[in-house]
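Record type: monomer structure entry
Structure origin: computed from sequence
Chain ID: A
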Amino acid sequence: MPAGRHLALEMTDRAYPAVLRRLRPALIGAAAVSAVLNVLMLTGSIYMLQVYDRVLASGSVPTLVGLFAIVVVLYGFMAAYDALRARLLSRSGLRLDAEMGAAGFRAILARPDAAGGRQDVQQPLRDIETLRGFLSGPLVGTLCDLPFVPLYLAILFLVHPWLGWLTIGGAALAACLALISQRLAENTPSTNAERLLTEAAARQTETILAMGMAPALLQRWRALRDRALARGQSGQEKVELLAAISRSFRLLLQSAILSMGAYLVIQGDMSGGMIIASSVLSGRALGPIDQIIGQWKGLARTREAHQRLMADGDLRCAEPEAELDLPNLRGAVQLTNVTRLGSAAPGAEPSRILQDVSLALQPGDVLAVLGPSGSGKSTLARLLVGAIRPDQGDVRLDGATLDQWDAARLGSWIGYLPQQAEMLPGTIRENIARFNPTMTDGAVIEAARLVGIHEMILALPEGYATVVGTPGTQALLSGGQMQRLGLARALCGKPSLVVLDEPNANLDEAGDAALSRAIALLREAGSTVVVMTHRPNILAEATKLLYLKGGRVAVFGPKDEIVARAQGIAPAPAPTADAAPAAPIPQPAASAALQKRAEARPDIRVLRRVESPSGERHWRIGA
């Protein structure tokens, strides 16, 4: 890779630090404005001092008017600088969100495993929103004022050391009370268990009502709620008591400073005007500390969001471009020793969902992938379309690994139907067109006709403009219609590689026939089709078969050859009414000699078609 291109990729790998570097001038400007603001904040104290010591002593009205005019001008500048700082910070928050929002959304799309609950997929966007709110809110202004607290304390010490020490001691005690209150609030039990039960019940209302579980669940919810409320109230009462003490102490501290000032005036150590000036200065010194302690929880959330964004490797300014602009995908697929690991508890060995899977497909091939539940079929489908990456081995399309392709261009040549076909919020036309504004109406209608749902769509209230994918439209389409809609989306644009994961799980007879026709047309057009299925009727259109067992390839090859081998070596027995289904592999333990013979004769492991007592046909591996 050329050095310049390598540097460009490094610069786009970490979006958040790059955005912070671009925001640095604005943040430095806000800090500079804060310095001017805090100097102007001394206006009130100096004005009070002059009024009490000069104006009242001399009785000069012109002096009072002149001082007030100066104060008006200074407060005008203070308002302008305060507005300027707020504008700088709010625009910084807006720029952070504008530049990081796309990176956060790309990070969501880069984490397909989060659907399984292993990570919070929306956390990056929430962290970006937290930081935007922090920059736009008052807390960051308070942090800018915090470095100038020593300035006010130094002035208090110049007025009299006793006032400075009293302010420092009072601030320390107030901070201790506030921190204890915050710690008690953090340790107060939340109602997470009750909330989780409520959310789960809301998703499964039909099952709960149908099986009469509502009274028992209500009793369980009430027990969780009562327990959390009782424990929460106990902690909340302590928090309320400390908060009341803290508020009263702050008022007491102001009175203590006034009393100390009056005593010093009586002793002749300072003038009467300094009493009011000292009270204002102590308020300015204690103000930022009180505000930060009061908003400590929000500051902690902001710090955690910052740390997560700094450590998040999926947040990039832009997707790295492919090395070359590769030609259009033809559909050749090659997997070499592909292994995909599953999740594992800390310290445990991860399971192997797929292990050493190798296969090769040419344009026009139709591969039917069979195997029991949990054999890795869905994982293989996600690997083929690039939704996840292998932990070992290579997945190549037209001879190039997935990272050599431009993701957006490659996706336009791939059609994918997952097990759970869900539509995004939008119209039916937009969903079938994959929200691609350049997709023509003709291509959308052709895809709908291909899977036999054109007439069904026209029968809807608004036809292709019918909105789906929102909570209010869930009952608009049945499970089978939704699956055929997802199939139309997968086939729109005549992709070169089509991967269908259990496409006929919810289809009726008409849907099965439409699916078979669509696969036949794709094969004739030269597209490569991979179908994960449990049902054998889809095998009529297949040219190759793959049987997965425990994540490994048990059988792979041309369908006709495998079926002929099955019929010639191990014909299936005639089904009877009480016939038991054929036993899946592995076969019973054999002698060492037989095992060596089996390893030397892989052709004895063949695919055969059997029929269960219910009449459903299956494909099994047998010897």
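Annotation 1: The radius of gyration is 36 Å.
Annotation 2: Residues 214-266 form the longest helix (53 residues).
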